[in-house]
Amino acid sequence: MKIEYNNLYTHFILVTRNRQPIIREPHRERIEKYITGIVNNNDSKLYAIYANPEHVHFLVSRSPKLSEEDLATIVADSSERFVNKNKLCVGRFSWQESAAAFSVSKSDVDRVCKYILNQPKHHHNETFAEEYESFMKFYQKTLNVRNRIKTSR
Asked: What is the pTM of this model?
């Protein structure tokens, strides 16, 4: 059945292989714009994105035709090819095999956008590992520590 109306807000986090800080500032915006295009070309809308050196946050309203896993895979595969083709990182760029996707209520969209866009300031106070652990505690209280994002592909 066709879904005509939806509110499927999802906060994604993609992590570089082995959490290597290889997304360099001179190429950050180009990578963000490319990912924005990927999302938009898949009948979804990107609200906020920020590419940190070893991980990327982005908030989307995704198409009901795509699961979280489908959209994460499309974004990861396409952006990986783009970064490597354009030599935007030293060596071969790749994402981890797994990503994180957290549902967001419509009332929290503005707060999550501000959080994503405030990443540089946020990471002066907290490492990515600390940030991720906070997400696990907040979003998935029942998740076992062994089930966190793997550190290698």
From this structure: 0.83
Domain boundaries, the chain: 9-147
pLDDT in tens, 61-118: 999 999 999 999 999 999 999 999 999 998 899 999 999 898 999 999 999 999 999 8
Residue pointed to by tokens 């939806």: 6
| CA–CA gap between residue 97 and residue 61 (Å, rounded) | 23
User: Which H or E run contains 14?
Assistant: strand 9-15
Q: What is the spatial order of strands in the sheet that 100-104 belongs to? A: 45-51, 55-61, 9-15, 100-104
**What's the CATH fold of domain 9-147?**
Alpha-Beta Plaits (3.30.70)
Q: 70 with 24: CB under 8 angstroms?
A: no
